[in-house]
Design brief:
Elements lengths: L2 H17 L6 E3 L5 E8 L3 E7 L2 E5 L4 E7 L3 E2 L3 H12 L6 E7 L2 H6 L5 E12 L2 E15 L2 E6 L3 E4 L6 H11 L7 E12 L2
Antiparallel strand pairs: 1-4, 1-12, 2-3, 2-12, 3-6, 4-5, 5-7, 7-8, 8-9, 9-10, 10-12, 11-12
Helix pairs in contact: 2-4
């Protein structure tokens, strides 16, 4: 091959490599993402809570993660936030809840902007030192060329007893002087991942 053509080939390969997003890795956009959970107490009172700090990524091999900073819990009442952190979540020992699933990178790559796809998945939830394998259905929407949204199709029910949190729930009930707190919480989420360019 003539030297000139060889140089052109090298230049083309370098340009192509630089044009592809590094590892096609997707990072969670915390500002555009949200995770809510609904608690019920005293048989008839339900309240919406959230977490303000989320992080995560989708790796090149399709492994997707979500990390929830438990000290960012927001119940709209400061003293209750503190009790949740210290009594229930025990954030000094368990600062994070994490979720991991395996995604279909080919499907993500084939989505057109504005197109959506539902996907039944199995995921691992690690919370309070306990791990459980659970399943749900997700809706994936291609918002832009470098942005996707992953959201829950239907609410997810998490039981405190599955994650060694039942004792903490009872301690919260006693501190708050409530007749009861439902050990089940209902979770919904909308997560936006942005591809590194």
């Amino acid at each position: 091959m003539p030297i000139t053509k060889y140089r052109h080939l090298i230049s083309f390969l370098i340009f192509t490599a630089l044009s592809i997003p590094a590892g096609a890795q997707w990072q969670l956009n915390n500002e555009e993402s949200a995770l809510y959970y609904v608690t019920s107490k005293a048989a008839a009172i339900s309240e919406i809570n959230t977490f303000s700090r989320l992080a995560g990524e989708i790796e090149t091999d399709g492994r997707a993660t979500l990390d929830i900073q438990l000290n960012s819990v927001d119940t709209a009442i400061e003293i209750r936030d503190q009790r949740m952190q210290e009594i229930l979540f025990e954030v000094s020992n368990y600062p994070l809840a994490s979720v991991s699933i395996n995604t279909d990178m080919r499907m993500l790559g084939n989505l057109s902007v504005g197109e959506s796809r539902n996907s039944s998945v199995t995921y691992i939830l690690n919370l309070h030192g306990m791990s459980q394998t659970l399943s749900t259905e997700l809706k994936i929407v291609k918002l832009a060329g470098n942005k996707i949204q992953i959201s829950s199709v239907s609410p997810i029910i998490i039981n405190a007893g599955q994650f060694a949190l039942a004792q903490g729930v009872e301690a919260l009930r006693e501190v708050a002087g409530l007749p009861s707190i439902n050990p089940n919480v209902v979770v919904t989420f909308s997560l936006v991942y942005q591809q590194a360019m």
